Amino acid sequence: MKKAIIEVKALKKDFYVGEITVHALRGVDLEIKEGEFVAIMGTSGSGKSTMLNILGCLDKPTSGSYFLDGISMGELSKNELANLRNIKLGFVFQSYNLLSRTTALENVELPLFYNSKIRSKERRERAEAALEAVGLSDRMHHMPNQLSGGQQQRVAIARSLVNDPVVILADEATGNLDTRTSFEIMALLQDLNQKGKTIVFVTHEADIAKFMTRQIVFRDGHIIREEMVINRNNAVELLKTLPIEESV
Amino acid sequence: MNYLNSIKIALNALKRNKFRAFLTMLGIIIGVASVIVMLAIGQGSKKSIQDTMSSMGTNLIFAMPGAEQKGGVRMGNSDAQSMKLSDVEAIEKNCPAISDVSPEVRSSGQAVLGNQNWPTSLYGVNNKYFNIKKYTIGRGRSFTETEIQTYAKVCLIGQTVVENLFGKADPIGQSIRFKNIPLLIIGVLGEKGENGMGQDQDDLVMAPYTTVQKRILAITHIQSIAASAASESQNEAAIEQITASLRLSHKLKTGDVNDFQVRSQSEMVQMFSSISNIMTILLGAISGISLLVGGIGIMNIMYVSVTERTREIGLRLSVGGRGNDILLQFLIESILLSVFGGVIGISLGIVATQIMASIMSWPVVITTLSVIMSFLVCSAIGIFFGWYPARKAASLNPIDALRYE
Question: Tens digit of pLDDT for each residue in B325-354?
Fold first, then answer.
């Protein structure tokens, strides 16, 4: 039995817009175990983004409990939440969110700047290792505008890896990429998952969700379906079937 | 997160926008440089006034006729004839705090030598006057007591008069004419240069006061009295004694207004110093305003920068930056801008001051205090004007900031 990284019970989240209360999450129970690669799916307004914000400790639930790696986040202060994000979580965004005019290496180093226990030498070494892990060891000193979209997303993934998080949260991480590049990114994530990383991947594309081990579908603030992926796609093999096109 | 990391992050952020950072600093640079220059000019003029004033003797005291009343009618000072030689004699007798005292009568006109002439002032004085006014006898001699008593037609001339009338020739033993009275030159005064107000102290002729009174002006009164206190610390006592002596010899009753004024050189020094202090404050305040404008420039750019980098802030928050880390980052950015600007401004100000001093030969003094003050003011500006934008950045909600378009 693997240990649970994420444990959510009876989670509710309400937003107050003027006098109207919007129930974004209406009681969600969820458990994600170590080594899983989970897709969170749903149309817009289904509550999946709210769920991701709470899982990412960026937002607090109205009620219910959330344990991240055994730590209850309900009682934590803002600063403690920031600390938790720094140590336990890695984020990958749809639009990469890299710092412009900053080298790939420095972008990857960023989370470690907020960890006072890490000295600059270790910071550099870990960032280099993370970039190597995503296959960009030859692009370390390039600026984001000198990198393709796929390479930029790899830098972002390296950044999410650099603090060795218990879970990587990806928000539509392939949303801005073409099919081939998406598959390349998925191949990288599958590889990382193979090596033991727990990944939660928010997407609305069924194709992409096919690469993961489990799918969780949200609608109107509830989980309406939760199932293991049968006939899971392998990104590396799928890439071979794609017609060869000139690289972008 | 430690401060070193914050400084590194802030430096990196500034490096990404070098030109903008420079333009932002420009306001501070100009502000600080002008503060330094203005204060240097102010301090310099104050010092040069003080220097020349004290070269004239800080224990110098003048007495001159003041507002006069005749039967209830108040008269002006200029034509007052209330001072007499007896006043000088009384002061000599009654005032222990005075070391030397001399009457003074003045006339201006052309000094004529053959076909040359030169406009100058003739001072009628006694032979203690040189001591009082710190004049030296360059060559020749001063006049004797006998020469004073016999209205002798002798004089000493200043360097400017020597140059203009004699050129390189030796003036001693020759005669110049002043208002048609020939005066034998018995001595040449040592060079003294300009005084604090740019007046040439070498452009004068000195003769016994009796000669000027009787032969040139045909008057019996004297125009003013020059005296020197025995020491600088006795200035106050000397002024009081002279005042008392003059009131006595002018037969003023208790309650009568003085018909004369007594001024000391140290009072003049103080007066001029306070004038140039006001000037310095004024100049400093004007350039201080440009420093303030520079500070507002920093605030403006920091606000723009916070808005422009909202997503960056969101990212930093999401990877574990706390509100305080963000606050610190932006605060350090604005402090770095203002402090760098300040350092450049101070250097620029010092250079500009030196250039001004050498090209226009203005007296300038850069005080350590003005440099330290400008530096501190700059840091304060950085903190003050950086605080609000930094606060705004720190209070952003990470979710909104990440999605900001």
Answer: 999 999 999 999 999 999 999 999 999 999
Contact by Cβ (8 Å): B14, B333: yes
How many whole angstroms separate alpha carbon A181 and alpha carbon A32?
27
User: By C-alpha distance, which of A196, A166, A157 is closest to A57?
Assistant: A166
Strands across the sheet containing A20-33:
A20-33, A4-17, A63-68, A71-72
Report d(CA B88, CA B86) in Å as an integer. 5
Beta bridge partners of A65: A9
Helix or strand holding residue A100 (H, E): none
Residue A202 and residue A52 in contact, taking contact as beta carbons nearer than 8 Å: yes
> Does residue A117 lie in a domain region?
yes
Residue B317: list chain A partners with CB under 8 A: 58, 82
| Nearest alpha-carbon partner for B56 in B228, B294, B223 | B228
Among chain A, residues having any CB pair with chain B shorter than 8 Å are 53, 56, 58-59, 78-79, 82-83, 85-87, 91, 93, 97, 99-102, 106, 110-111, 113-116, 159, 163
Entry pTM: 0.73
C-alpha–C-alpha distance, residues A96 and A175, integer Å = 10
pLDDT, tens digit (0-9, with 9 covering 90-100), for B89-109: 999 888 888 889 999 999 999
Burial of B247 (0-12, 13-18, 19+ CB in 10 A): middle
For residue A163, the chain B residues in CB contact (below 8 A) are 319-320
What is the span of the domain harbouring residue A188?
35-61+81-241
Side chain identity, residue A97 = N
Q: Shortest CB distance from A111 goes to which of B9, B320, B398? A: B320
In-domain check, residue A13: no
ipTM: 0.92
Examine the pLDDT at B198 and tell me if it is beyond 80: no
Give the total number of structural domains in chain A.
Answer: 1
Nearest to B137 by CA among B127, B146, B147: B127
The residue assigned the tokens 């007499």 is: B84
Residues of chain B with Cβ-Cβ distance to A79 below 8 Å are 322-324
In this structure, the strands spanning B175-178 and A167-171 are unpaired
User: Residues B158-185: what's their mean pLDDT?
Assistant: 91
**Closest B-chain CA to A55:** B318
What tokens appear for B267 in the block? 């009072």
Q: What are residue A169's DSSP bridge partners?
A: A91, A200
Shortest Cα distance, chain B CAs vs residue A241, angstroms: 35
CA B362 to chain centre: 11
Q: Which two tokens stand for residue A80?
A: 């403690």
Q: Which residue from A49, A41, A33, A30 is spatially nearest to A1, judged by alpha carbons? A: A33
Q: How far apart are the CA of B317 and the nearest CA of chain A, in angstroms? A: 7
The nearest CA of chain A is from the CA of B364 a distance in Å of 45
- Would the CB atoms of A86 and B320 count as touching at under 8 Å? yes
CATH code of the domain containing A55: 3.40.50.300
Residue B41 structure tokens: 């000019």
Residue B117, beta-bridge partner list: B112
Distance in angstroms (rounded) separating the CA atoms of residues B51 and B47: 6
Confirm whether A25 is domain-assigned: no
Within-domain flag for A6: no
The alpha helices in B56-144, defined as continuous H runs, are 85-94, 129-132
